[in-house]
Every structure is written in C-alpha cells, then in structure tokens.
Amino acid sequence: MSTPPATPDVAASLYEVRQKIYPRAVHGWFATWRWLFVIGTQAVFYGLCWLPWNGRQAVLFDLAARKFYIFGLVFWPQDVFFLTVLLIISAYSLFLFTAIGGRLWCGYACPQTVYTEMFIWVERLIEGDRSAQIRLDKAPLGANKIARKLAKHAVWLGGSFWTGFTFVGYFTPIKTLSFEVVTMSLGGWEVFWILFYSFATYGNAGWMREQVCKYMCPYARFQGVMFDPDTLTVTYDVDRGEPRGSRSRKDDHRADGKGDCVDCGICVQVCPTGIDIRKGLQYECIGCSACIDGCNQVMDKVGYPRGLIRYSTQHALKEHWGWRQMLTHIVRPRIIIYTVILGVIVLAFVWGLGHKSTLRVDVIRDRGTLAREVEDEQIENVFRLQVMNVSEQPQRYTMSVSGIESIAINGPTEIEVPAATTKSVSVAVRVPEHSAKKGTNTIYFDVRSLSDDKVSVHEKARFLRP
Amino acid sequence: MKSWMVVLWPSFLMAGVAEGVFFSLVNPQELYLLGEVVDYPPLAAYSIGFLAFWALCSASSWLTCAMHTNAEAVNHLPPHHGVHQ
Ligand code: SF4
Ligand code: SF4
User: Fold this and answer.
1) Is A250 found in the same domain as A387?
2) Is there a domain that residue A349 lies in?
C-alpha cells in the first residue's frame, strides 16, 4: 500500500503542543481588585473550617453522620431540596453577572484563577519576573536553576498539601484531622482525598493553568449564549487604536495617520491565557483585565488618555457612546427578567429556611407484627415512629393518635430525643374491635414538642383490621 | 494531555452530581451489596461510590470522544501506520 497521507488537522489540533505562557506582572486598579478577591476567598476557605460554633465546627459536611452543619443550620439528607435550590440560585446569579459584566467569575473568583494567581506569585518571588523566568528556562541545568526550581516546587507542594488538608477538613472535623495527622493515624481514605486534592491543586495551578480554562471549563463554552451586544467585556477600541505601530515620542502620530496603539505587545505579555485582545473577543479570554491595567500603564507613559483597552460593550464601541449612555443600555429586558426571577427564588429560599421545621416524623408499620386481637376485644397494630429532632437542643415530645373512635396508644406517650438525633420508637395502637371497619383505616399521629407548641407534626398512617 | 482532560473533567463533575443525588436519597449503611450489608466506614462507602460514578461517567465521555473523531482520523490513526505499509 502507498504511504498514508499526513495526519489530518483534526487529529493534529488534539495533540497541539502547548507553548508555555509567562505572564508578565502587572499593577493597577483591576490587579488590586483581583488580589483582594484572592485574599478574601482564601481567608474564608482556609479559615472557616477552624471556626467553632455551639461546641462544634461552624461549617462541616459531616458525611459519617449524614448531616451538614452551616452555622446555626443543620441539613439532613431530607433537605436535599434546599441544596438544589441553592445550586439554582448560584446558576442564576452566574447568568445574571455574565450578562451584565462578562466573565467576572473567571477573572476574580474562580478557584482556578485564584490558585493560579497565588502560584504565579510564588513563581515570581523565586524565579523573578517574566524575562528572568524565560532566561532561567533556557539556561542549561546548573546549581542556580536546580535550586530555584526545587524551591518553587517545594513551596507549591507545601501550599497544595495545606489546601488538600483544609478541603478534607470540611468533611471530617478539622481538629480530629489535625490530631490524626500529628499522631500519624489518618485513615486510608482521608489520606487518599488529601493527596487527591493536593495534586489536583498542584497540577491545575502549577502546570495546566490556562489550559484548564481553554479545554476543561464548560462555562467558557456557553459564553456565546450568555453575552449580547450590551454585555460589558474587556475590549480593545479598534477605531482609536488602529492603525497601530511604533513611533517616536516627538511625532504627531495622528498627523502620521497612526492610531493610539504603539504595538508594544504589553497586553499580550500580561495575558494569562496568552491571547491578543486586539483581535477581538475570544472564548479564551477569562476577563481578568490584566491587559487593561497593562495598556493603561503604557498609555500613561506615552501621555495618551487611558482606556484604549477597557470594559465596554459592542454597542457602545460601535456607536461611540460615553459611559453614561452605555450604562443606561445595560438595564435591558434580559437583565430585568433575570433579576426578578433570581429575587423570587432567593426570597422563597430564605422563607423556606426560616420556616424549616425542627421536628420530623416518619411512620412505618412494623413489618414483623401483623394486626392482632388483644384482650377486651381490641385490635392492636404496632408502628415504628422515627422522630428526628433537627434542632440543636434536646427535646421532649408527646405523641397522640386520632382518626378512629376510642383509638389510643398503649404504653408511654412521651419521648425524649437528644439534639440533632433521630430516635426510633415502637408504638402499639389499640382500637375497640367494633369502631374500626374491616381492612385499612386511616389514622393520624400527632407529635408535639412539650417546650414549644408550634413545633408539631401531623402524620398519616394506615391501621389494619383483619 | 488534552484528551485526558476532556474525558476526566466532565465526568468528574457529573460524578459529583450523581454522588450528591444518590447518597442524599440512599444511606449507604442501609444498602445491601451482593446480598451483604455494607458495613464499610461511611467515608469509604462515599469514596468508593464517587470513584465508581467517576469511572462510569469517564467511560461515557471517552466513548463520546471516540465517536467524535471523523472517518479520516480513524482510518489514519498515527500508531497504525505500519499496518498499511
Ligand atoms: S498594550 Fe496597548 S499600546 Fe501596547 S500593544 Fe497592547 S493595545 Fe497596543
Ligand atoms: S485578553 Fe485581557 S482580560 Fe482577557 S484573559 Fe487576556 S489579559 Fe485577561
């Protein structure tokens, strides 16, 4: 057979070799904001697991006990509804913010951005800025290079382990976990998840970086649906910048027919995903605004007005609108509809949380004992009541039953349930033979807290008469 | 590298969803596995559950990837060049 043709482009693009990106350090208004977000989100992440509350960890997803604690709230598996609503709220907020200001989430709050930012900061401390890093990578292996690379990876790994440890500390109480680390008595799965999360952090923030955003992020793929011509995004003002070109300080560049872009390439060098924003909006752009800060520095230096790259909308750019006009166009039907829906869901969620009952009862007919006749011509059915005290104080409850004439509980009618626990009691219910019809009868259990009358549950059950 | 990422990551997300839904409805401690009560420690049960979901979802993602290649790419996959010569 003849030699096969060269590998087609499709395959080639799948195996495309990644060029390492060395983002250049940048200072400015947006960079400051990004750092504030990094510090804020990480103070919460690393700190919250150490916060005590009511003698327990304030935020703990206790898998072993199947209970999630968030400050004063305790969520049971039955509350999965709240979790779902919370996810819907997050998704809706994301749509809303994206429609208004583009990928704000990516640029400021996404863990991928935040950890990459921290890792790059370490890299700069140890290897120097962009040019120093490029030089170091090109240099032959020597003592200096080995020392710096080792130091960098050691710090990265240290940070990653701390991150992994913190992460697992939200699922196993972190004090227990620390104790287990110190006494080297960690369980196998705890070790597994700490290492898993550590290496995920190390790999994603240290090695993969922008590739995660480019190839793994589903959100980036949907930006086209969420953006419209009135969405604020990081944009290069083509009309003002072009034709680009270098120039000497003294020239009047307008007279020479040149635009404001001096083609210095700073915007490309600072970009963490390595794209050129001057080519227009691209899905690789995570909206980090580093190019805005970078270009503004250049504009200051050459004495042109700032904002050649800025937050703007497609419409504003086309129609040469000022800030005020652009902002009035941001309030559009889409934004209003999103805001209203989001507001309604949030209100319903808060209302639901406020009215979450602290008592729950499940009635199960005891499968072992059938309906039977007992003394004095009475019929007895045995039920199993699962009484869940969802509050954080121990409670006493009283139980009663109704629905059939002269129906009564045979045995104790009070039950004490410790804080945040489920207690299961067996309850024998008796009915005089003549008052129940043959077959199934509907009855109701009422369980009421002795300390608070409002805490009560009315549960339906079936009483059998043979 | 890239194809690994495209397979493992979406399946990781979906495994997370599956894990959440499944274990909020089912308590692993009340499960029977091949006729025996599951008596692993909770963390083990949840972890094994997650890894199993992840493996399943990865298989699905991988199949999608495999189906997505066009005929030309399949006929001329680089590693099999030798066979044609
Ligand atoms: S930083 Fe500004 S002036 Fe420099 S190349 Fe980019 S757009 Fe042009
Ligand atoms: S183009 Fe600008 S805003 Fe977009 S990712 Fe690059 S530096 Fe950030």
Assistant:
1) no
2) no
d(CA A367, CA A271): 67
How far is residue A105's CA from residue A218's CA, in Å, rounded to a whole number? 13
Find the Cα–Cα–Cα–Cα dihedral A331, A333, A337, A340, rounded to 10°.
Answer: 40
DSSP state of A437: P
Cα A148 → chain centroid: 34
Does the beta carbon of B62 lie under 8 angstroms from any beta carbon of chain A?
A: no
Query: Which of A99, A100, A96 is CA-nearest to residue A88?
Result: A96
Q: Is A275 in the pocket of ligand 2 (CB under 6 A)?
A: yes
SS3 A439: strand
User: Do residues B22 and B54 make contact, with C-beta atoms less than 8 angstroms apart?
Assistant: no
pLDDT in tens, A410-427: 888 899 998 888 888 889
A195 CB-near residues (< 8 Å, 6+ apart): A164
Partner-chain residue, chosen from A80, A192, A218, that has the shortest CB–CB distance to B47: A192
Q: How far apart are CA B63 and CA A222, in angstroms?
A: 23
Q: Quick one: A251 and A177 in the same domain?
A: no
How confident is the model over A306-317, as pLDDT tens digits? 999 999 998 898
Q: Using 50, 70 and 90 to split pLDDT, how confident is the model at A215?
A: confident
Q: Max CA-CA distance within chain A?
A: 114
The sign of the dihedral angle between the CA atoms of A198, A199, A203, A206 is: positive
In a shared domain, residues A164 and A246? no
pLDDT value at residue A437:
85
